[in-house]
């Protein structure tokens, strides 16, 4: 094991997995309890359009994907609140548009030297110290946001109409939460990949809900689950020579399936 941590790229990927484990473990609870798993999948696939924009214009795809996903998440929120679209329709439209835009731009950019597959399925070799700093910065902002507004977000989660009538600024909280969702998905692209990252938005809280119904317990178990899944999947992928994102998702799904079986037997 010591030889793994002697390599810079593996250390970067491992520490990024720890930071992302905390982020996904907390975020997943709010996405799952509000029945917005499709939103996570939609934003994850929207990132493909942002990556393609970066490739087409010769800009770092990370930043174009981040900006594109945050704008898309906020736009979906606004259109839904204005009553112009239902949430699933808005997500479906942005999902299809961004994938089509990505495919079109990649086709137009006939000659490019870019590891597109790494962004789609994850590539631990691409994780840099800068990525670690960005992930740490997002965690540094996300934790105080949740600590400060958790009771209002929970109020929204269980009865948004009553929350609004009680003076909770649901629109601003939703916008901030969706912006964080977009940012967390984008910064995890290099490890998990665009196609598979939506699983980490859903699995942690789903696993936690099998074990407990207390929201603090669900978040705690979600964090433990994601840390074990991401770090364990990363180590397994190195020894098995498999894609890290796919290994993490298979490991996490297997753990969730086992938890369901054990719970049913009890």
Describe the structure in your own words.
- This protein has 266 residues and is mainly α.
- The protein contains 13 helices and no strands.
- It has one domain: Orthogonal Bundle (ABC transporter involved in vitamin B12 uptake, BtuC).
- 83% of the residues lie in helices and 0% in strands.
- It is globular and about 55 Å long.
Q: How would a textbook summarize the main sheet?
A: none
Low-pLDDT runs: none
Number of beta strands: 0
CATH topology: ABC transporter involved in vitamin B12 uptake, BtuC
Short description:
The chain has 266 residues and is mostly helical. The protein has one domain: ABC transporter involved in vitamin B12 uptake, BtuC (Orthogonal Bundle). The protein is built from 13 helices and no strands.
Describe the secondary structure blueprint for this structure.
Layout: H1 2-5, H2 8-33, H3 37-57, H4 61-81, H5 87-108, H6 116-121, H7 129-158, H8 160-165, H9 170-187, H10 189-192, H11 197-211, H12 215-240, H13 244-265
Helix pairs in contact: 2-7, 2-11, 2-12, 3-4, 3-5, 3-9, 3-11, 4-5, 4-9, 7-9, 11-12, 11-13, 12-13
């Amino acid at each position: 094991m010591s030889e793994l941590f002697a390599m810079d790229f593996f250390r970067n990927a491992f520490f990024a997995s720890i930071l992302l484990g905390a982020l996904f473990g907390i975020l997943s609870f709010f996405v799952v309890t509000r029945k917005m798993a499709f939103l996570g999948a939609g934003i994850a696939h929207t990132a493909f359009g942002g990556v393609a924009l970066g490739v087409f214009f010769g800009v770092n795809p990370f930043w174009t994907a981040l900006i594109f996903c945050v704008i898309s998440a906020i736009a979906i929120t606004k259109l839904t609140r204005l009553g112009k679209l239902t949430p699933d329709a808005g997500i479906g439209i942005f999902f299809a548009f961004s994938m089509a835009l990505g495919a079109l731009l990649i086709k137009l950019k006939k000659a490019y030297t870019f590891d597109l597959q790494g962004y789609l399925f994850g590539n631990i070799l691409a994780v840099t110290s800068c990525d670690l700093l960005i992930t740490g910065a997002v965690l540094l902002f996300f934790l105080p946001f949740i600590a400060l507004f958790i009771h209002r977000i929970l109020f929204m989660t269980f009865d948004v109409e009553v929350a609004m009538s009680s003076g909770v600024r649901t629109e601003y909280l939703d916008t901030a939460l969706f912006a964080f969702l977009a940012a967390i998905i984008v910064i995890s692209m290099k490890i998990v990949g665009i196609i598979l990252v939506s699983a980490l938005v859903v699995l942690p809280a789903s696993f936690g809900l099998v074990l407990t119904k207390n929201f603090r317990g669900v978040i705690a178990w979600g964090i433990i689950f994601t840390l074990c899944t991401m770090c364990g999947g990363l180590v397994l992928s190195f020894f098995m020579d498999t894609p890290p994102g796919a290994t993490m998702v298979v490991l996490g799904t297997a753990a969730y399936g086992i938890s369901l079986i054990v719970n049913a037997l009890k």
